[in-house]
Write a structure and sequence with these properties.
InterPro entries: LexA-like, LexA/Signal_pep-like_sf, Peptidase_S24_S26A/B/C. By secondary structure, the chain is of the alpha+beta class. It folds into 3 domains: 64 residues, 434 Repressor (Amino-terminal Domain); 48 residues; 137 residues, Ribbon (Umud Fragment, subunit A). 31% of the residues lie in helices and 23% in strands. It is built from 7 helices and 11 strands. A hairpin with an 8-residue loop joins strand 8 and strand 9. Helix 2 packs across helix 3 and helix 5 packs antiparallel against helix 6. It is elongated, with a radius of gyration of 26 Å. The two termini are 38 Å apart.
Length: 274
């Protein structure tokens, strides 16, 4: 059993008979996020940050979510055996029902019973290349589209898309430099002015703690109440030069005191460090 399966079982036992909505509110989570973690139909896992936060709120030992006792393991095995027994009972019920069906050949009856006992032939593949256990983190992907051309009016309340599961050590191997993984978020670019470095709708990894100019690079910024993803260079004491990588889009001079940096783009999710 991997660490996320352990965390899920521990979370279920912690909630017990409590209302999920009340638990989510106490833990500072969206109820939908908690439901996704508990669901068998989604791939949302209980990440390190949320696990540590719940442990602190519930006054549990740090790492409580990451291990399982012998008694808990026995209880899980019993649950698995009960599930297997239920499946066998279902197969037996099908067999009994078929015996009452007239005109059904023995060969057809055998095929139906065999299908009842077969496991699913659906193969699931995870292409996210997670790291070793304990090295995976979730990065929130926000519904924010920075303009690479004409400016976009920024959202007051951006929505969260599907989170992205990544390995911080793998990101560093790719040349992405950051202090803490929880400083990182995902947004998207829109437009062609930063091509070929960034194509329209490419997901972008951004460090949202960088709110000042830290050297030449690509920034998410607000200028004249519009949101841009552009290169910035210092032009003089009072002005930046806002640059596009596409030669069809010329540079623009923007005043520093009218420019609000929202973060620095660290990586384009097409394998392009910036």
């Amino acid at each position: 059993m991997d660490i996320y399966a352990i965390r899920k079982q521990k979370l279920i036992s912690l909630i017990g008979t409590q209302r999920k909505g009340a638990c989510a509110e106490r833990w500072g989570m969206a109820p939908a996020h908690l439901s996704q973690i508990l669901s068998d139909k989604t791939a949302k896992n209980l990440g390190d940050d949320v696990a540590r936060r719940i442990e602190a709120i519930e006054k549990l030992p740090r790492g409580w979510f990451d291990s399982i006792s012998a008694d808990e393991s026995t209880a899980l095995n019993v649950g698995d055996m009960e599930s297997e027994a239920s499946a066998q009972t279902a197969a037996e019920q099908v067999r009994q029902m078929l015996e009452k069906v007239r005109g059904l050949t023995s060969a057809a009856r055998d095929r139906i019973i065999a299908a009842t006992n077969e496991t699913s032939n659906v193969i699931t593949v995870d292409f996210s290349r997670p790291g070793q256990v304990g090295d995976e983190v979730w990065i929130a992907h926000y519904d924010v589209r920075g303009a690479m051309g004409d400016g976009q009016v920024p959202h007051d309340y951006p929505e969260t898309f599907q989170d992205v599961r990544v390995s911080p050590s793998h990101l560093r191997e790719l040349g992405v430099q950051f202090k803490e993984h929880f400083h990182l978020k995902m947004i998207s670019g829109q437009g062609e002015s930063m091509a070929p470095t960034i194509k329209s709708r490419d997901p972008l990894l951004i460090d949202v703690t960088i709110r000042e100019f830290t050297g030449d690079g690509i920034y998410a910024l607000t200028w004249q109440n519009h949101f841009y993803i552009k290169r910035l260079q210092v032009l003089d004491e009072d002005n930046f030069e806002m640059l596009s990588d596409n030669p069809l889009h010329g540079p623009r001079t923007i005043r520093k005191d009218d420019t609000y940096i929202q973060g620095r783009i660290l990586f384009v999710w097409n394998g392009q460090p910036v």
